[in-house]
Design a protein that fits this description.
- The complex is a heterodimer of chains A (about 375) and B (about 290).
- With about 375 residues, chain A is of the alpha/beta class.
- Chain A has 13 helices and 14 strands.
- Chain A has a five-stranded parallel sheet with strand order 2-1-3-4-5, with helices on both faces. Chain A has a four-stranded parallel sheet with strand order 7-6-8-9, with helices on both faces.
- Chain B has a two-stranded antiparallel ribbon with strand order 1-2.
- Chain B is mainly alpha-helical.
- In chain B, a hairpin with a 2-residue loop joins β1 and β2.
- The longest helix of chain B is centred in the first third of the chain and has 31 residues.
- Classes of the chains: A alpha/beta (about 375), B mainly alpha (about 290).
- Chains A and B meet through α2, β7, α7, α8 and α9 of A and α1, α8 and α10 of B.
């Protein structure tokens, strides 16, 4: 009889003890990303990156000698789930900061919960609405669509291009960037002479491209889009033998794009990408070179898949957060927030971050590198 | 003129893909009145398995063959495991089962393969053919040819072979078909195998143009279904005509009006046709006997 109570109570007590120590002695970071579902191409590398970084950090002794625990949820790209997980992270898991929101929708859901609870939140989504107007506890790591447009137009201006055609995907990414580009085109003296769209599932865009080709005075073509669309546009562009510079967006800045569009068709295509894509090409002494080469090597070694921009967003969020906690020497949400706002010259994979209480994006146009595809390889323009 | 020709080529390229998918719908529909919403997943599997086998080092024709056979086998499995146990259920329930099968196949593909976009080389190279100042990809001719061959095969099957007539008889009245000695279970199995095989063939032929990923199935199924409805569900002639018509309407609208309205234009035409001809352009007249 006594033996029986022992076997049941002892393990229970042990479990309780383990739980108690887990809850008190660690720095707890929460994350909700879209590791499955329609936004899995964003969330999958993000989740893998976070898991990898936490393991590495703890192997090196954690932050100021304390272990870091990661509570990771998969919201499947659903904003309602993201809101539930954000609440659970704060109330049940008692995290000190949240990383996540692979998409703008899930980020907006987490944002409202985190702001109410006054917990620092670093979003991994693109839309400028997340940090504009500035909210006290919300930050984000990716550059915005508008910055991509500005970078492209800056490059066009240098090449003396004043009149362009646009062909945009009607998916969220393409439509948002199309709108942003049209807004800032005037600032660079660029006129949009033809404005066509395609459905992301379309198999052929030669009709739209023929129209742009025949529009008068078009000097270059810009294709804001995501997924297979831009690859098909690039192939059709070659098929129609259009002899104008073609610009793609940062949405397809990966080796997969060259492979899908084909080496010949992609020749000469320019796009704004992050340093991560051209890690080997960066000059010695580039502030980002050590961090991008280290992340690229570690990620590719661990996952056997090529590194991408999106995993890099998660890398940077984790870097900003751990840097802030180290400097703050505290896990009080307010202290972490103040430390993030004091971040200066922190080199991540996306760019060099410098936050202020008024700027929660922390990046400028220098975060983008203008890249050109030559002989099936990325090269740096300039 | 060359502009019009280019729009035409664009429409025919896309239309041929729609037509091939639409043709896949006809057999299962003819055998059981069920619209198989997993048809798009068969197309996806055709592309994904071929890519997977090709990337593993197999020559492209062999990889394509494996993809078609494996997908046909999967079609049979779906019939045996999901459709046959529910025999006797109303057609609507069976259609819902095919939607479930579609979700399952998509999820499984995501796990077995990956979440990236893939392609494999076009069969006859990438050098576009120039005709009258317009260009067309050689792969488009493969898709068009594939659609025509499948159409001819189906038409002969349904009108000239005993087996094809057995399929039609099964759909007309399962009990009567059984009474005259038709093995209706075999007919259903056969129709799933054929439909899945045709779907996979569509995926094999179209992937060098459309590219493939685990989630492309729904898009294919929707456009193919629209094509089949426009032409008349169950009629191979209708599937062929409907698919090409939708592709052409989309391309001409994108070319002459605005690309923003091209999907809308296609669906307005479908609505109009179905309003005046509820059976589609080539559909059989439904005669309800009392």
């Amino acid at each position: 009889m006594i033996k029986k109570t022992l076997t049941t109570t002892v393990p229970a007590a042990l479990v309780a003890l383990a739980l108690a120590s887990a809850a008190s002695a660690e720095i707890r970071i929460g994350a909700s990303v879209s590791a499955t579902g329609p936004a899995a191409f964003l969330g999958d590398p993000e989740a893998k990156t976070l898991e990898m970084l936490v393991e590495d950090l703890n192997a090196k002794g954690g932050i100021n000698g304390e272990e870091v625990a990661l509570v990771l949820y998969d919201d499947g790209g659903d904003a309602n789930k993201a809101r539930t997980f954000a609440t659970r992270l704060i109330e049940d898991d008692e995290v000190q900061a949240i990383i996540g929101g692979s998409t703008t929708g899930t980020s907006m859901a987490i944002l409202s919960v985190a702001e109410d609870a006054e917990i620092p939140f670093i979003s991994l989504a693109g839309a400028i609405d997340i940090i504009d107007p500035v909210k006290p506890y919300t930050f984000k790591t990716p550059h915005t669509d508008r910055m991509a447009c500005q970078k492209i137009f800056e490059d066009m201006q240098k090449r003396g291009i004043a009149k362009i055609g646009m062909i945009s995907g009607t998916d969220g990414f393409g439509a948002s960037m199309q709108a942003q580009c049209k807004e800032v085109a005037g600032d660079y003296g660029i006129e949009i002479a033809a404005d066509e769209t395609y459905d992301p599932k379309d198999a052929d865009m030669t009709a739209q491209l023929t129209k742009i080709k025949n529009a008068e005075g078009v000097q270059a073509v810009l294709n804001p889009g995501f997924g297979q669309g831009p690859s098909i546009v690039t192939r059709n562009y070659k098929q129609l033998a259009i002899d104008l510079p073609l610009y793609q967006s940062h949405g397809v800045a990966s080796d997969g794009f060259i492979e899908l569009a084909g080496k010949d068709a992609a020749e000469g295509v320019r796009l704004p990408g992050t340093a991560l894509l051209v890690a080997e090409l960066l000059p010695e002494g580039d502030a980002q070179k050590p961090v991008v080469t280290a992340y690229k090597a570690a990620f590719e070694e661990r996952t056997k898949t090529p590194v991408g921009t999106f995993g890099g967003y998660a890398h940077d969020a984790f870097l900003i957060l751990t840097d802030a906690i180290t400097r703050a020497g505290s896990t009080e949400p307010e202290a972490i927030r103040d430390a993030i706002e004091a971040t200066k010259g922190l080199a991540g994979t996306t760019g060099v971050y410098a936050f202020t209480p008024e700027d929660h994006l922390g990046l400028d146009l220098s975060a983008f590198r203008m890249l050109e595809i030559k002989g099936g390889e990325w090269t740096l323009v300039e | 003129m060359s502009e019009f020709l280019q729009f035409l080529f664009s429409g025919v390229t896309v239309g041929a893909v729609y037509a091939l998918v639409a043709l896949g719908f006809t057999i299962i529909y003819n055998a059981s009145d069920v619209v198989n919403f997993a048809q798009g997943e068969f197309v996806m599997l055709g592309g994904m398995i071929t890519w997977f086998a090709h990337a593993a080092g197999l020559p492209l024709p062999l990889a394509a063959l494996i993809a078609i056979v494996a997908t046909a086998a999967l079609g049979v499995a779906i019939n045996k495991l999901a459709i046959e146990p529910a025999r006797g259920a109303p057609v609507v329930s069976l259609i819902i089962i095919t939607i479930g099968a579609s979700v399952f196949l998509q999820g499984a593909a995501q796990l077995v393969f990956d979440k990236q976009i893939h392609s494999f080389p076009a069969f006859s190279g990438d050098r576009p053919l120039r005709i009258g100042g317009a260009t067309i990809q050689p792969q488009s001719l493969w898709v068009i040819g594939g659609a025509l061959v499948v159409f001819a095969g189906l038409w002969l099957f349904f009108t000239r072979t005993l087996l094809g007539r057995a399929v039609l008889a099964t759909s007309n009245n399962r009990l009567a078909a059984q009474l005259v000695g038709i093995n209706t279970n075999f007919v259903m199995t056969l129709s799933f195998a054929l439909s899945a095989g045709i779907g996979a063939l569509a995926g094999v032929l179209a992937t060098p143009i459309t590219l493939t990923a685990y989630n492309v199935g729904i898009g294919f199924a929707l456009k193919g279904f629209a094509g089949a409805m426009l032409g008349g569900m169950g009629n191979p002639k209708g599937a062929l005509a409907g698919g090409f018509l939708i592709g052409l309407i989309e391309a001409l609208t994108a070319g002459y009006l605005s690309s923003t309205y091209k999907e809308a234009a296609a669906f307005v035409v479908i609505l109009l046709v179905l309003f005046f001809m509820p059976q589609g352009l080539f559909g059989r007249k439904s005669t309800e006997r009392v």
